[in-house]
Amino acid sequence: MTKAxxxxxxxxxxxxxPSLGASTKVLVTVVEPKSGKPVSGLxxxxxxxxDDKTPRQVESAEYTNAILDVILLLDTSLVGPVVQPMxxxxxxxxxxxxxxxxxxxHSSADLIQDFTSSKQLLSRAVGKVKYGNTPxxxxxxxxxxxxxxxxxxxxxxxxMLTAGLEGPGRVKESExxxxxxxxxxxxxxxxxxxxxxxxxxxxxRQTGGASFSLKDMKKTSADLPxxxxxxxxxxxxxxxxAGNLSLGEKIKIEIKRxxxxxxxxxxxx
Length: 269
What we know:
The protein is built from 8 helices and 14 strands. By secondary structure, the chain is α/β, with parallel strands linked by helices.
């Protein structure tokens, strides 16, 4: 082999080196749908990741319990009062180092309490809300995602507490998902009625979140569901996917278990 050819090969190897052994991280939440409990104990071989129907190799799976930064997105529309009692149960779940902000939404989104670890301040803010107008949850989610998590360092989560109805808005599901991924935010939805169930599940699946039907959770336990919901918010897997990939919006996570499980994904940039 001539010196010239050797030099060319070395240049090619150097150019390809950054991609050799590259990997992509994906945050994955797995939930038992009926009970609303997180699923632990899964290994890399239990996961299948499809990127627009193309399978990607899962190299490792690490289970984590995280500290949270939570924005409670509270339905204050005409039908919102049905969820206010549940807000107190969710606020009560905050642990040391965790903080929560409260944003109310109807036809617009309004910050009523900035991030704090004070459960008293959070409860006071929720107790003072006024109800009215048509719910526009997608518009509220987009506005909250756009500027709600500046300078937050823990796991970024939106916990939307809603009656489950949606009025006409300006924003599409795909726009909300795209912004959530860009800002590294997982969307969790707690709802009373299931009219928008498919929309809630889509938002959760594509952002590493989960959706909870209060009616379904009451069937499996008489206890208030706040502890189970926050256990899910804090619990997730970090999957390492082979290759330096730009994962599209049609990510699908499948779990190789006989029981039916809900799984969601958030690519970590």
